[in-house]
Amino acid sequence: MILDIMLGVVAAGSLTALCLVSFKLYIKLTTGICYSQVCLRGKTTIVTGANTGIGYQTAIDFAKRGAKVILACRDETKAREAVSEIIKETNNSNVVYKLVDLTSFTSVRKFANDINSSEERLDILVNNAGAGRLGNKLTEDGIAIVMQTNYFSHFLLTMLLVDLMKKHPSRIVNVSAVGASAGKIDFKKLTSFTTEANQYIVTKLCQILFTIEFARRYKNTNITAYSLHPGVIKTEIFRNLSPIFRWFILFLIDTFFKTAREGAQTQIYCAIENGLEKYSGEHFHDCKMVKRYKSARDPSLAEKLWQESERIVKLRSVEDQI
Ligand SMILES: NC(=O)c1ccc[n+]([C@@H]2O[C@H](COP(=O)([O-])OP(=O)(O)OC[C@H]3O[C@@H](n4cnc5c(N)ncnc54)[C@H](OP(=O)(O)O)[C@@H]3O)[C@@H](O)[C@H]2O)c1
């Protein structure tokens, strides 16, 4: 009897171990890697939120390829450290940081003005910075903080840099998340706080819809746009979870999912892979184009979001028309 129970426990343990190893193997085998050999010498790139996580890894990759890399960060100490690490690792001294706080439209406008007056070209813009669980605070612009950080500020930044990007073939890469598939936009509550989990996925859906509408509106220009889900990755994005839950999540991710370097691959791919232009507006997972989520298939939703976004960020203000 006891022997039967022991054998049963051993069998169940072995089966569980086999399932876990198979799952890990599946994740590793399906992790998309960007194998492109494209050289970025002479190109200028901006990565928002590049002092850590997948933004940092993206900046390293662009620097290795010879690009000028501008790290768009909010914390000067972290940004300076990241720049010096990247220069040390890549031997590319053309890596700089510029400060931008995505919770403030004034800061975004200042950053964009600086770029427009100091750079002659902009070939790649990766709208990567993001955060979750920021609480129900409003920004100085009166917008729910996660909506402004993840979406509205990137919308504004992109639109302020569009003229510079039009000068040469260029790409916009919007870092979304698979959670966007469960997102639902309530236009009456676009700027106000709803629930924490819902708001994050709505920001990620907005990035996809923005990409679709951008591709439609800028079809006959030099600029193309892509959105993507980078995977489940061990980064600081989980910093605002409770300590025990964070430890548990990071343990799981560390064991089964992606490193930051692996997580950066799809955005690098969207930014540099040759021949992607015809897929402008499309969404990517693991360095492959995927079918749009159901939540992002209605083109009228994308158009409406664009119009609302223009109004909310005051894109057509006198300042922008100068
Ligand atoms: N990690 C995942 O599993 C996962 C999954 C799906 C999607 N994503 C998306 O991937 C992107 C990168 O995230 P990550 O995982 O690399 O996270 P991360 O390590 O936390 O990096 C986020 C970056 O965004 C910056 N940032 C946050 N708020 C900002 C603000 N107000 N102004 C300027 N910069 C700000 C952070 O700067 P500080 O260091 O100064 O805070 C940091 O550089 C995000 O858009 C995220 O939603 C991640």
From TrEMBL:
Keywords: Oxidoreductase. CDD domains: retinol-DH_like_SDR_c_like. Coiled coil: none annotated. The keyword Oxidoreductase applies. Transmembrane segments: none annotated. InterPro entries: NAD(P)-bd_dom_sf, SDR_fam. The keyword Oxidoreductase applies. GO terms for molecular function: oxidoreductase activity. PANTHER family: PHOSPHATIDYLINOSITOL-GLYCAN BIOSYNTHESIS CLASS F PROTEIN, PHOSPHATIDYLINOSITOL-GLYCAN BIOSYNTHESIS CLASS F PROTEIN-RELATED. This is Uncharacterized protein.
